[in-house]
Amino acid sequence: DRSLKIAPSILAADFADFGREVQAVEAQGADWIHVDVMDGHFVPNLTFGPPMVKALRRHVTTVMDVHLMIAPVDPFIEAFAEAGADILTAHIEAGPHIHRTLQAIRAAGCRAGLALNPGTSVQLAAPLLDMCDLVCVMTVNPGFGGQSFIESQLDQIRTLREMIGDRPIHIEIDGGVDPGTAPRVVAAGADVLVAGSAVFKGGSVADPAPYGANIARI
Ligand code: DX5
Ligand code: ZN
């Protein structure tokens, strides 16, 4: 299904109210919920681990899309799968054994995602594509929300679209997606747009209407 999907990143939501934030954006039209896991080592920021993903699972009725910005990945796959992740996305830069990691994600019963940093050529994904349900092209350097979109990634998205052809593999874009950049990433071939600040700005669980307006504008 290559229809356009918006995946709000809860990195930009109220950390003390994730359950209601998730319910609010789903009610306002979110297609997936994107969960950013950071370890303070692979990226210079810390967020949360399997217990938080498990607690969120009760609130997510769509698809829980878990982006692992951690190294190593393999020791935690089972825990995130048991916590209820639908998709587990690992970075190609996170270790020497990404092929094994993607195998382990599928073996744990999750859909497998492969993420690439802006400094990594999408050509490196070629031998891995048939092990992937999703390829995530980072359009910022991972670690923080609210950064500006890296324009040169548009060429990489087009290249990846050609490499994938008709295979049922999602192209997800993560970082700096807003109403200005979204049409260009879609034209380049993306079908899943992660958006943190662009979705959550101006809204709250008390008044989630701006979330819906923000999602509609993207
Ligand atoms: C960045 C994260 C993103 C982040 C995007 O490391 O992977 O998912 O939340 O935030 P925005 O949409 O604000 O750039
Ligand atoms: Zn992310």
TrEMBL record:
Pfam families: Ribul_P_3_epim
SUPFAM superfamilies (alphabetical): Ribulose-phoshate binding barrel (SSF51366)
Domain of life the protein comes from: Bacteria
Positions of substrate binding: 9, 67, 143-146, 174-176, 196-197
EC number: 5.1.3.1
GO CC annotation terms, alphabetical: cytoplasm
GO biological process: pentose catabolic process; pentose-phosphate shunt
Pathway the protein contributes to: Carbohydrate degradation
Transmembrane segments: none
Binding site for a divalent metal cation: 34, 36, 67, 174
MF annotations from Gene Ontology: D-ribulose-phosphate 3-epimerase activity; metal ion binding
Active-site residues annotated for this sequence: 36, 174
Keywords: Carbohydrate metabolism, Cobalt, Isomerase, Manganese, Metal-binding, Zinc
Catalytic activity: D-ribulose 5-phosphate = D-xylulose 5-phosphate
Record function comment: Catalyzes the reversible epimerization of D-ribulose 5-phosphate to D-xylulose 5-phosphate.
UniProt record similarity statement: Belongs to the ribulose-phosphate 3-epimerase family.
PANTHER family found in the cross-reference section: RIBULOSE-5-PHOSPHATE-3-EPIMERASE (PTHR11749)
Protein name according to UniProt: Ribulose-phosphate 3-epimerase
Originating organism: Roseisalinus antarcticus
